[in-house]
Amino acid sequence: MLLLIVFVFVFAFLTLLLGKFVHSKFFKFISIVPFLLFLFFTSFIPLLKDGTKNIFYRTEWMPSIGVSLDFKLDGLSLLFSLMITGIGTLIYIYTSSYLRGHPYLNRFYTYLGLFMGAMLGLVLSDNIITLFIFWELTSVTSYFLIGFNNEDESARKSALWAFSITGLGGFFLLASLVVIGSITGETSIHEILSHSNSIQGHEAFGLILVFFLLGAFTKSAQFPFHFWLPGAMKAPTPVSAYLHSATMVKAGIYLLARFTPILNDGDLWSKSLLLVGGVTMVYGAFHCVFRKDLKGILAYSTISALGMLVFLLGIGTELAIYASSVFIVVHALYKASLFLITGAIDHAVHNRDITILSGFGEKMPILATAGFISALSCAGIPLTFGFIGKELIYESTLEGGVTYLAIGLTVIAVVTNIFLTCSGLLAGIKPFIGELPKKFSKVGKLELGIALPPFILAVLSLVFGVFPNWINQGIINSVTRSIYGDFINLDLKIWHGVTTALLLSGLTILLGVAVYFIVRQSHNSMRFIERFEVFAPQHMIEKLIEKIRVFAYRYTGLTQNSYLRIYLIVIVLFFIGLVGYKLFADVPLQVNTEDLSAFRSYELIVFIITVIAILFTISTSSRLTAIASIGVVGYCICLIFVFYGAPDLAMTQFAIDTLTVVLFVLVLFKLPSFLKLSNRRIQARDAIVSIAFGTLISLITLQALVSPADKEISRFYAENAYTLAKGKNVVNVILVDFRGFDTLIETMVLSIAALGVFSLLKYNTKDEESSE
Amino acid sequence: MKKVQNSETRHLDSTILRTATNYLLPLIIMFSIFVLLRGHYLSGGGFVGGLIASIAFVLHSYAYSPKETLALFRFSPLRLIPTGLSLSILSALLPILLGLPIMTGVWFAEDVVVIGSVGSALFFDIGVYFVVIGVVLTILFTIAENV
C-alpha cells in the first residue's frame, strides 16, 4: 500500500515531464492510471464487504518516535479510496477536454495527481502522525489546485484563504493528535481505539475534542469557517468538482467518522457536532438559493450537505451513521455531476449566470439527462439514490420518538432539504429547460470527454437508487461498521411503505419545488444575501489582517528605515540591553589578572597601530582612507591571531579583510563625494553607543576567561583528530569531519547570501531597464 | 589587451600590475590549491583556499576589468556554487553507500603521493573551496556590474 501511494506521487511528478513532449489531446490516456487504481480498490470489495476484516500494511519509518507508515484498509477507507480514484478518473478524463491546449496542463495534472496521492494517504493511514502529514499535504496540494489560474489575483487570494484556514485547522488537529498520542502512548489508530475510555476520561478531553473538531471543521468548511469554500470556486471547475464532492472537504468528514469510535462520548461530541452541523446546513442551504452564479449555488449547497453529514455523525445512532454513509455517496455522486455540468456549460458559453442560462437541453442531450437525474437525486425523488439517502436522514432524526429534540432535528433537516432540493433543480434542470437565448444559439455539440463523466455519475445515482442492495451489501454496511464499531445489518429499501419519513420526503419535494418557483435569483437577491456576510468571520479576519499590516508598516518604518546606521544602532543597542542586563544582573563580575600572559613589546606596537588606524578611520574625510584604515585594523587582528597561535584563523581573517576592502573600493567609485551629514549630537550618540558596546564585549571576554571552561570537548578533538579522522590540523578536522554538518550548512548559508545579492541587484537592474 | 580609456574606467591602469597579474594569477591559484590540500595536516583548508583563489581573480579584475575576468570563465561563477554544494553533499552521503552513518569519514587504503591520504573529507573540503570561490566572485561581480 505504501508502494501504491509512492507510485501515485511519482506518477504525478512524471506527468510534469510529459508537458513539453506530449500534445494535450493525449493527456486523456493517463486517466488509465487512476482507473487502474480504482479497479485495484474494487478488488477489495469482496474481501471487506462483511465488515469483519481489516487489512493492514506496515512499514517502519521512525520507530523511535512511533511514526510508522501503517496503512489500514477497512470499509470506511475503502469507500473513500473508491471515491477518490473513481471520481478522480472521471475528473482526469474531463480535464483533458476542459483544459485542452492550456499551456500548463501538465502542471495541472501534476497537482491533481499529488492531491490524489495525499488524499489516498490520508484515508488509508493508520498512524496519527502519518495521517496528519497527509492531511497537511492535502491542504498544500489543494492550494496549488485552487490557485491554478495564478495570473488571476482573486484566484491567488482564495487559494491563500483556503490554505490559511485549513492550515490553521491543521495546527489544532496536530495539537489534539499529539495529546491523544501522549495519553495513550500509541500512535496507531486501531490501538488507540482500545484506549478510547482513557481518552474520554482524561481531564484534557474537552480540549482535545475542541482542537480536534477545529481541525475537522475547518477542512469541512463548517460554520464559521465555511467562507473559504465559496472562494475556492475560483479554481477550474474540475477542481471544484473533485475537491468539493468527494475529496478535500470530505476529508474532514472522514476524520470525524474515523475518530467517532474514539472520541464519541455521547455528550460533548454529539452536542458540538449537532450544533455546528445544524447551523452550517441551514446556513448553507439558505444561502444557496439566492445566488445566481451556478458555482456559488453549488458551493453553498456543498456547505449545507457537509453540515448535514456532520449533523448525522453528531446524532451518532446506528441509523444516523448508516444514513451518513449513504449520504456521503449520494452527495459525492450528484454534486460531482452537477459541478461537471456547470463546468461544461461554462466551457461552452463562458457564462454561469443562472438568470441567463436556459434551454440547453436540445443542444446537449447527454448533459441534460445527467443534469435531470442529478437534480432528481439531489431533490430526493424516488428511484434515485438521493431518495434513499433522504429517507434515511429523516428516519434517523425521527428515531428519538416524539421529543423536542427529535422534532427540532427533523425540522431543521426538512428545512435544509427543501432548500437543497431547490438548489438541485436550479443547477441541474433550469439551464436545460425553457428557451435558448439567441446569443447562445451557435453553441456546438459538446465533446464526449466533457459530457460523459457527469453522465456516468448520474447513471450511478440512478442505478444505486434502483438497486440499493448492491452498494449496501458491497460497502455501506462495512463502512457503518467501521464508524459505529458494532456489527449491524441494515437494508436499503426503495420502498418503506407509507411512513412519516415518506410524508416528510413528499413535503420536502413539494416545498422545494415551490421555493424554486418563488425565489427569483437576481442581483437584488444576491445583495440581500450578502448582507449576512457582515457576520461572517472572513470580514473580521480581513480587518485583523489589515491591522497587522498597518502595525508592521509602522514598526518597520521605525526600526528599519533603510539607513544602515539606524539598523546598526538598533542591533547594537538591543544587544547591549539584553546581554548587558544579563551580565550585570546574574554574573559576579571579576577580573582575573593572574592568568594573563605578560605584555610583549611587539604586541604593544600592534596595539598602537590599531588605535591609530581606528582614529584615522573615524576622523578622516576621505572614504578611501577610512576603508584602508579599517583594513589595517583587520590585519592587526590577524597579527594578534598569529601571536596567539591561531594560524588558520589568521589566514582566513587576512583573506576576508582583503576581500572586504576590495569590495568597498568597488562600490566607492560610484558614491557621491564625501558629505558631512552628521552633526556633533549624532557623533556623540554614536560615540556613546560604540564605547558602551566595546566595553561590554571586553567585559564579556574577561568574564569568559574567569569562568572555568569545559576543556573536555577541545581535548577530545585534539586527541582524536588523527586517530579518527586521519588529520593533523585539528581546526580543519573539526571543520570537515567532526562538525562537518555545520560546515555544510554554513556553505549553504553562504550560497543563499550570494544568490540573494545576485537576485536583488539583477532584479533591480531589470526594473530600471523596463521603466526606462 | 588594448582598452578604451575613459573617465569611467575604474581599474588601476598600470602596465606593471597587468603584467604581474598574468603571472600571479596562476601562481596564486596554485597556492590556493596547495593551501586546500594541506589543510588536513597543516594550516589551511577549503575555506581559506577558496578565499585565496578568489583574491587571485579579484586582483585580475583590478588589473583589467571585471568583464575581462569574467571572460576567463567559460561559465558563470554562479555555477560553482551548486557544483561545490553537490560535491560536499555527495561526499557526505557517500558513506551511506558503504552502509555507514552519514558523514562518516571514509578513506582510500593507499596514500597518494604528495597529497597524503585521500578520503571523503578531502572532497568535502574541495566542495567548500568551490562554494567559496563561487560566492565571493558572484557577489563581487554582481556588485561591480550593478553599482
From TrEMBL, chain A:
Keywords: Antiport, Cell membrane, Ion transport, Membrane, Transmembrane, Transmembrane helix, Transport. It comes from Myroides guanonis. Residues 609-672 form the MrpA C-terminal/MbhD domain. The chain crosses the membrane at residues 29-48, 76-94, 114-138, 159-184, 204-229, 272-290, 297-315, 321-345, 366-389, 401-427, 448-471, 494-519, 563-581, 601-619, 626-646, 652-675, 687-706, 743-761. Residues 684-764 form the MrpA C-terminal/MbhE domain. It comes from the Bacteria. GO terms for cellular component: plasma membrane. Pfam families: MbhD, MbhE, Proton_antipo_M, Proton_antipo_N. Its main location: membrane. GO terms for molecular function: antiporter activity. It is a multi-pass membrane protein. GO terms for biological process: monoatomic ion transport. This is Multisubunit sodium/proton antiporter, MrpA subunit. Residues 61-109 form the NADH-Ubiquinone oxidoreductase (complex I) chain 5 N-terminal domain. It is found in: Cell membrane; Membrane. Residues 125-408 form the NADH:quinone oxidoreductase/Mrp antiporter transmembrane domain.
UniProtKB/TrEMBL annotation, chain B:
InterPro entries: CPA3_antiporter_subunitB, MnhB. Residues 16-138 form the Na+/H+ antiporter MnhB subunit-related protein domain. It comes from the Bacteria. The keyword Transit peptide does not apply. It holds the Pfam family MnhB. The chain crosses the membrane at residues 21-41, 47-64, 85-109, 121-144. Keywords: Cell membrane, Membrane, Transmembrane, Transmembrane helix. GO terms for cellular component: plasma membrane. It is a multi-pass membrane protein. It is found in: Cell membrane. PANTHER family: NA(+)/H(+) ANTIPORTER SUBUNIT B, NA(+)_H(+) ANTIPORTER SUBUNIT B. Belongs to the CPA3 antiporters (TC 2.A.63) subunit B family. This is Multisubunit sodium/proton antiporter, MrpB subunit. It comes from Myroides guanonis.
